[in-house]
Amino acid sequence: MGKDVLILTSKFRGRADVAAEFLEQRGCRLVEREVVYPVTEDHLCELVRDVDGLITGLEPITARVLSHANRLKVISAAGVGFDHIDVEEATRRGIAVCNCHGCNNHSVAELAFGMMIGLSRSIYTLDRQIRNGGWGPVPFGPELWDKTLGIVGLGRVGRSTALLGRAFGMRVLATDIVWDMTFANEHGISYVPLERLLRESDFVSLHVPLTPQTRHLIDERALALMKPTAYLINTSRGPVVKESALVDALHAGRIAGAGLDVFEVEPHPNNPYVEFDNVILTPHIGGSTHDASERAFYLALTNVANVLNGEPAHCQVN
Q: Is 266 assigned a catalytic role?
């Protein structure tokens, strides 16, 4: 049985020596191939030939790419999200798909909170003002203390965000397809339907995977339910928010602002949010901390090595 592993994601390729040693200790071999970024589908079709394991970033592993993967047995995403992988086609071909569930929940939660504080206190606007020689007037914003935080998706990242909210003295509401009442009761969190969460929250933070059910979950109707003083934070996946609806809501002042780490198109060729001073934008960096990257690095390698050695992966999704 072949055990050749290819790392596609650029954030891990710089640690090839460490990865090679880790894999060798587990009877696997790191394959060195030149990867040209941004990676095209045609290039991926060439890269995946004659490899048994694959570690991806956000490179699109489509049905066509999988059709060229003549030996592939396992794919591990280098993060939590795996919507860039055609899981249905991989499953049909008997390929295990894994992710790094739990590796970045603290990092993403901290970014979400950084955005909440930055927006409520206009930190980035005032920073630019001083750099341009100004000093005031100072816009007044809300404290987080005693405000309502709405968590859409109380998984690992949502839970970490909720706990930060409680530490800041916030009332925390949550909604999800499954309600974990033990966790909620232990930490003073109230489950409510999405509509009520949107109506009552001062900050709405999105922590759901991208699925057919969550695509454009936040649309015109959802935004219309929010308070005009409320802020929307999205560190999950871009298409969870309908871009045109959010742009219209910001233009109309129907919400107070937004913090966005993810977008419908990445990188965005003509980002419509850059005109708004009440929007914070970051380039999908939720999991980009030393700590999260270290955890993901070893978990992705372990996922692949385990499957190639006939052992269970830690985080298989199919």
A: yes
4-31 pLDDT, tens digit per residue, is 999 998 888 888 999 999 999 999 999 9
Q: Among candidates 239, 183, 229, which has minimal Cα distance to 206?
A: 239
Indicate which residue of 207, 237, 254, 295 is catalytic.
237
CATH fold label, 105-281:
Rossmann fold (3.40.50)
Domain spans, the chain: 4-103+289-308, 105-281
Q: Which one-letter DSSP state was computed for residue 236?
A: S
Is 92 a residue of the active site?
no
237 is catalytic: yes
Spot the catalytic one: 266, 275, 294, 311.
266
Whether 4-103+289-308 shares its CATH topology with 105-281 is answered yes
C-alpha count within 13 angstroms, C-beta hemisphere, residue 282: 20
The model's pTM is 0.88
Return the SS3 of 118.
helix
Helix (H, G, I), strand (E, B) or coil at 230: coil
- Amino acid at position 300, single letter: A
Domain 4-103+289-308 classification at class level: alpha beta
